[in-house]
Amino acid sequence: MTAGRIQARMDALQQIGRKALIPYIVAGDPTPETTVPAMHALVAGGADILELGMPFSDPFADGPVNQRGAERAIAGGTTLGGVLDAVRAFRADDADTPVVLMGYLNPVMAMGERVFCERAHEAGVDGLLLVDMPPEEDGVLVRRARELEMDLIYLAAPTTTDVRMRAIGEATSGYLYYVSLKGVTGSSELNAGDVSRKVDAMRAHVQVPICVGFGIRTAEQAAEISKAADGVIVGSVLVSAAEAHANQPEAVPEALRQVLAPMREAMDDVQAGLTS
After folding, report:
1. Is 269 a known active-site residue?
2. Which residues contact 60 (CB under 8 A, 6 or more apart)?
3. Residue 88 Cα to chain centre, angstroms
4. β-pairing verdict for 155-156 and 127-130
5. What 3-state DSSP class applies to 173?
6. CA distance 195 to 18
7. What are the DSSP calls for 90-107, one per residue?
8. Contact partners, residue 255, CB within 8 Å, separation at least 6
9. What separation in angstroms does the CA of 25 have from each of 82, 169, 243?
10. What is the average per-residue pLDDT within 13-40?
């Protein structure tokens, strides 16, 4: 099996001593036409991998900011098919940046698990992160995704036990998403020391890169987390930027780039300081 885009990107970053910066936005927020320009703007701002949210009417693991992003996307007419169309359009000008779809099982089941996997693969999707799919699941969706060499990315939390972590580590490919805080997306009170200790402990059970998300809002926080993690995932602060420009959607891509670029610079600066 050849390395997919996610593994290839992570390997390349490791070789140059750089940590992955992984932004999350909701597809179709604030309008369907915004999504592809926003994806390109995030890459221009320093993104290594893109997480694209599949809007769902009951995003129970998301905080208010991301919930409102999903509501705007759905109100604007974004469907799961439209999300896949956006990835396909992005691929017309970017064949290299990995794209991960993040969301919930319900819309996938409605489309059909096999059909979804095949359409996602054809569009250029590299990984799936379905927050309500347990690592023990081994049905049609999991089997077909693996046959198509799409990575299945799972979540771990501060409360995850060692036994559970081993199961997650065995199921995960691409990277593991470590939820650094208890609660929903957009939570605050990030403690970099706690994150560092937990990431170090997780490495005994996880062979893939460990990327940390939830609560990262500033360049300083991104840089601090990047000292311990293989990647930094940034979501709610970007969805907030989209919300702030919802009435001027053409301004959203540049607003997202301006949020992300200082994080990229700060992360690179701290890595340069650690290796100098």
Report:
1. no
2. 104
3. 18
4. unpaired
5. coil
6. 19
7. HHTT-SSS-EEEEE-HHH
8. 241, 242, 244, 245
9. 15, 26, 11
10. 97
Q: Whole-prediction pTM value?
A: 0.94
- DSSP collapsed to 3 states, 214-253: CCCCCHHHHHHHHCCCCEEEECHHHHHHHHHCCCCHHHHH
Among 48, 62, 126, 230, the one annotated catalytic: 62
Question: Are the CB atoms for 110 and 119 separated by under 8 Å?
Answer: no
Q: Six-digit token pair at 220?
A: 């300083």
d(CA 51, CA 185): 14
> Please, what sign has the CA dihedral across residues 193, 198, 203, 204?
positive
The region of weakest confidence among 68-72, 73-77, 187-191, 205-209 is 187-191
Q: Which of 71, 64, 97, 100 is nearest to 236 (CA)?
A: 64
Mean pLDDT along residues 143-165: 94
Q: Which of 11, 29, 48, 51 is catalytic?
A: 51
The answer to whether the beta carbons of residues 273 and 262 sit under 8 Å apart is: no
Decide if 29 is catalytic: no
Query: In the prediction, which pLDDT does 182 show?
Result: 58
